[in-house]
Amino acid sequence: MELKLADKKSELLEILRIQKENQSSNLSIDSANTNGFVTVTHSYEMIEKMNSRAKQVIAKMDDQVIGYALVMLKEFEDLIPVLIPMFETFKKIEYNGQKLDQLNYYVMGQICVQDHFKRKGIFKKLYEKHKEEYSKLYDYCVTEVSSSNLPSMLAHEKLGFKTIYTFTDQTDTWNILLWDWN
């Protein structure tokens, strides 16, 4: 398996394929509860724009993308309408006595591994690659996970993410998780 930063159109398209396969709306309740799911849908234009500013982390096997972990910089807070409440919340909450929005962080925009590669440590390896590539530039990695996505919550906590805030919007109850690299 190879961990790398996406640098080809074909890799970005494969991210979108895996994303579609794992959309909560495309999964049975049992599969979503067992394997987790993704909520946000990106267009190719969105993912290309994000990748132009910070390369997306991918896992490949036999030249095929089998997992990804997206990098979403603060500057893209208006790119995906469903994520605007998350970014607005960042402006209101604090971590270690400072407004989260004032800290040096980026958002891990979504992480997903193809079903038959799950539970093989790829989730952890994708995040280790994030840390290797982006801890030189940022102090924190922040993400948001649905309270109903227990597999993802447990995996993030096991890695070292801490829940720093929970809120409910029109779509779900969300946990804002922070990985402190200091």
UniProtKB/TrEMBL annotation:
GO terms for molecular function: acyltransferase activity, transferring groups other than amino-acyl groups. InterPro entries: Acyl_CoA_acyltransferase, GNAT_dom. Pfam families: Acetyltransf_1 (PF00583). It comes from the Bacteria. SUPFAM superfamilies: Acyl-CoA N-acyltransferases (Nat). Residues 52-161 form the N-acetyltransferase domain. This is Acetyltransferase. It comes from Zunongwangia profunda (strain DSM 18752 / CCTCC AB 206139 / SM-A87).
